[in-house]
Amino acid sequence: MIAATINDTEVLVEEGSTVLQAATKYGFHIPTLCYHEGLPAYGACRMCLVEITQGASSRLESSCTRPLEQGMVIKTDTREIRGHRKMIMELLLARCPDAEVVQEMAREVGVTESRFSKLNEDCILCGLCVRACRDAIGMSAISFMSRGIKRHVDTPFSMNSDVCVGCGACARVCPTGAIRVEDYGAKRYVRYFNTELELQPCEECGRYFTTKRFFEKNKNDFVGADELYRLCDACRRRQHASMLKGPLVNVHP
């Protein structure tokens, strides 16, 4: 176990915990935009900055990527930290002025207007979609492209991806709602990435419910997935319910 001090409170957490995890466990709120507990930490948004003191030196670090160490003294809400967070929110508010999550967090840290020119983007470059695709799904259909003010997330050459399985993980983790996944007829469209996929119909009711690529991926990755993904959720539940209503077989030793 690791012992440290957060906001004058002694904390004790398991070895390997980050500063953010320790602070959250003890009820200290640290704002985050690019963090998701199910994905590797990235430290892109810098909203989770905290002040860490070890010995005679103090510095600001991202709490989501910094492992907690024995004897650390941590402050989560100093004047310097608030100043940094306000500057970050002004930049994000200028980049994505219409994003609800940005507006809410800006109000949380006391920012109502940005002094910078508006860009009217809908992506805050948090990288959650990239990490979800790469680390959770294992596909790497999207990645960061270009540098500086031209940096963005896209498929290679901005073309219809032949790697994307249409699972929708990117859309589910996107904090601004910039990524939309929509089904029309036998097609699924991942709008932000100009990607189109064929849908797999349920073998019983005929309703389209997943993509053919997602079906093929899971069929190869998991035992029993071939049977599982041939039926939609409703038909699968109905099939199981029917089986449970059948006669029970008594097995005697």
Based on the model shown, name its key terms:
253 residues, alpha+beta, Ubiquitin-like (UB roll), 2 domains, five-stranded mixed beta sheet, four-stranded antiparallel beta sheet, 30% helix, 20% strand, disordered C terminus
Residue share in β-strands: 15-25%
- Fraction of residues in H or I helices: 25-40%
What spatial form do the alpha-carbon principal axes imply? Answer: globular
User: Which structural category fits the helices and strands?
Assistant: alpha+beta
- Helices and strands, in order, run as EEHEEEHHHEEHEEEEHHH
User: pLDDT average, as an integer?
Assistant: 91
- Contiguous runs where pLDDT drops below 50 for at least 5 residues: 248-253
Please tally the β strands and state the result.
11
Number of structurally distinct domains: 2
Rg estimate, integer Å: 23 Å
Q: What is the rounded distance between the termini?
A: 49 Å
Largest sheet: 5 strands, mixed
Our count of helices gives 8
Plain-language structure description:
With 253 residues, the protein is α+β, with helices and mostly antiparallel strands. The chain folds into two domains: 107 residues, Ubiquitin-like (UB roll), CATH 3.10.20.740; 115 residues, no CATH class. 30% of the residues lie in helices and 20% in strands. It has a five-stranded mixed sheet with strand order 2-1-5-3-4, with helices on both faces. A four-stranded antiparallel sheet has the order 8-9-10-11. A hairpin with a 2-residue loop joins strand 8 and strand 9.
